[in-house]
Amino acid sequence: MKIVIAADHAGYFLKEKIKDFLIKEGHEVLDVGTNSAVSVDYPEYGYKAVEKILKGEAERGILVCGTGIGMSIVANRFPGIRAALCHEPFSAKMARLHNNANVLVLGGRLIGDGMAIEIVKTFLSMEFEGGRHERRLNLIEDLRKSFKQK
Question: What is the pLDDT, as a whole number, of residue 150?
């Protein structure tokens, strides 16, 4: 699978661990940065990642920042992106099965390397169930399109 990965400075070290794991598992990894623990602005890196997904250059994405909250906010601003902040494998499983999440977000300051790898494994191994969940995702999109801002 082709996976784009990005992090800010707070997620840099965990991003590197996840990237190594993904490569060892045979995935093609597009790393769009950051490339050190020097302070950066997370929105720039979140955008670089979701842009790859929206252009069809990656199937899924993994974003890491300190808590995962900032990257989640960035990613979910873009139509077609369904980013899920997960702190344990069950959330990652449900994000794929019921929400068809295409971006996994992790908090680099909240979870350890081992837990992060388990979350990634789960996220990548699950397939969307469709059915009533598809109907609900379509409803979200319809509601988004119907919103008229004053």
Answer: 60
Find residue 7's DSSP bridge partners: 64
Answer whether 29's CB lies under 8 Å from 22's CB: yes
How far apart CA 76 and CA 58 sit, in angstroms, is: 17
Nearest residue to 131 via CA among 98, 107, 109: 98
Note the pLDDT tens digit of each residue in 99-137.
999 999 999 999 999 999 999 999 999 999 989 999 999
Q: Kindly list the catalytic residues.
A: 65, 98
Kindly give the parts of the chain with pLDDT less than 50. Answer: none
One-letter amino acid of 150 = K
Q: Which residues of 102-141 are buried (b: 16+ CB within 10 A; e: fewer)?
A: bbbbbbbeebeeeebbebbebbbebebeeeeeeeebeeee
**Cα–Cα dist 122/94, whole Å:** 10
Domains of the chain and any CATH numbers: 2-146 (3.40.1400.10)
SS3 127: coil
Per the CB < 8 A criterion, the answer to whether 3 and 22 are in contact is: yes
